[in-house]
Amino acid sequence: MSEDDHYLDAAIREILVHDRDLLDRLGNDADVDQENRQLLAELAVAHRRSELDLTLSLDESADIAGMTSVEIQNLLAEGALIAYSVDGIDRIPRWQFTEGGVLPGVGIIAAAVPVDCPIESLVAFLNIENEDCDDLTPLAFIESGGDPAAVADLVRELDQR
């Protein structure tokens, strides 16, 4: 079983638990139950797939960064990288890496990410052109030598939106 299959199996188990709770609140109408079962399953699987597509395992992160897994773990422990927990396993967002390794100033940005910020929202923000980043995406701005602290200030504002 691949790592992705493991996460999808866990998502389906999670759907079943949440589905029962929601259906209990909605009542016992069989048509409503079936519609909600299908909708919940589709949403949860799409969300799980998104989490997997936007993140890397520890080993994948190490390979991309040209580092060891221990070095990546140290960066996570220092707060120089962030990770999202998916089924209790740390998954490291892809945006923190470039073709040459770790994104410059990523620790400054990681420290600014609001605690409850969904990865999908953060990645979307980092990949949309922004006038405060010289009309580049925040990631392109940093890669072109822009100030990571300026991007961190913008990321901090995500909590206020």
Description of the molecule:
The chain is mainly α and 161 residues long. It folds into 2 domains: 3-53; 57-160, no CATH class. The protein is 60% helix and 9% strand. It has 8 helices and 5 strands, in the order H-H-E-H-H-E-E-E-E-H-H-H-H. The protein has helices at 3-26, 30-54, 58-65, 69-78, 106-112, 119-126, 138-143, 148-156; strands spanning 55-56, 84-86, 89-93, 97-98, 101-102. Strands 1-3-2 form a 3-stranded antiparallel sheet. Strand 4 (97-98) and strand 5 (101-102) form a beta hairpin. Helix 3 (58-65) packs across helix 4 (69-78) and helix 5 (106-112) runs parallel beside helix 8. The longest helix is centred in the first third of the chain and has 25 residues, at 30-54. The chain is globular, with a radius of gyration of 18 Å. It starts with a helix and ends in a 5-residue tail after the last helix.
Number of domains: 2
Low-confidence stretches: none
Strand order of the largest sheet: 1-3-2
Which sequence of SSEs, written as H and E, runs from N to C?
Answer: HHEHHEEEEHHHH
In angstroms, what separates the terminal alpha carbons?
A: 40 Å
- Which band does the percent of strand residues land in? 5-15%
| Average pLDDT metric | 80
Number of strands: 5
Which class best fits the helix and strand makeup?
mainly alpha
